[in-house]
Write a structure and sequence with these properties.
Restriction endonuclease type IV Mrr domain-containing protein; globular; six-stranded mixed sheet; 4 helices; 20% helix; alpha+beta; single chain; Trna Endonuclease, Chain: A, domain 1
Length: 235
């Protein structure tokens, strides 16, 4: 099926590896919008796959509009691993977010739909999905790279995602807080392995919400600040 802007694309496309010429069939994953509806990548059946030669944050995310509620969300750009070892960027069509008019977003939050964590990239996606569910917008890569993990930002917020197997340290929490202070932003920390006891104590003193990401992709509040953020959302 030939696609064109503003028209829903087929759910799967044929992808040829430019290195070994093997053909693959790629099916777009569906991601959970904050409203609860699934959002799929608009694949381009006429596009040509390219090999990933370097990583850049801006190249790894694509804006897609939910057809159910009209929200614009940032989701991972589709990739496919070929058996020859090449990682392919799956061609994506121009998205509905480029053409459709914006709709007013409903005030109430729906049930959170987590993203299963299998890789470090999944951990970042899970944190971004959660922040978007809380009501933060314009989620992007942070301007400054943290000493540990990956930094993401939204309007007025700086978040750090630590996908390592070591608990976040007191220094990790303090560095996040100091960076947020210089940017006049609030901050929040997500960790897969939890936090050292002194890191939790320091976070309470500095006002930093702490979350642990379980493998289902659901952030679990660690301190009362995180409980409050989970309950009230972005303000």
């Amino acid at each position: 099926m030939r696609g064109r802007p503003g028209v829903a694309m087929s759910e799967s496309v044929s992808v040829r590896c430019p290195a070994c010429r093997r053909e693959h069939v790629y099916e777009a994953p569906a991601y959970p919008c904050a409203c609860g509806a699934p959002v799929s990548m608009p694949l381009d059946p006429d596009g040509i796959a390219s090999a990933v030669t370097r990583r850049a944050w801006d190249d790894e995310w694509i804006s897609v509009r939910c057809t159910a509620c009209g929200r614009d969300g940032e989701w991972p750009r589709p990739e496919l691993g070929c058996s020859c070892g090449t990682v392919l960027l799956v061609p994506v069509a121009r998205t509905a977010a480029d053409d459709a008019p914006r709709r007013k977003e409903p005030a109430a939050r729906r049930a959170f739909q987590p993203v299963t964590i299998r890789t470090a990239r999944d951990a970042v996606t899970a944190a971004a999905v959660y922040l978007r569910w809380l009501g933060y917008r314009d989620i992007r890569r942070a301007d400054q790279r943290p000493p540990t993990g990956i930094g993401i930002a939204a309007h007025g917020l700086l978040a750090q995602v630590d996908p390592t197997v070591s608990p976040a340290s007191l220094r990790d929490v303090e560095c996040l807080w100091l960076t947020a202070m210089t940017e006049s932003a609030t901050c929040v920390y997500f960790s897969l392995a939890g936090y050292a006891p002194d890191a939790r104590t320091r976070a309470d003193a500095l006002g930093v919400p702490l979350f642990v990401l379980d493998l289902t992709g659901t952030p679990q509040p660690v301190n009362s600040l995180a409980d409050e953020l989970d309950a009230t959302g972005a303000r």
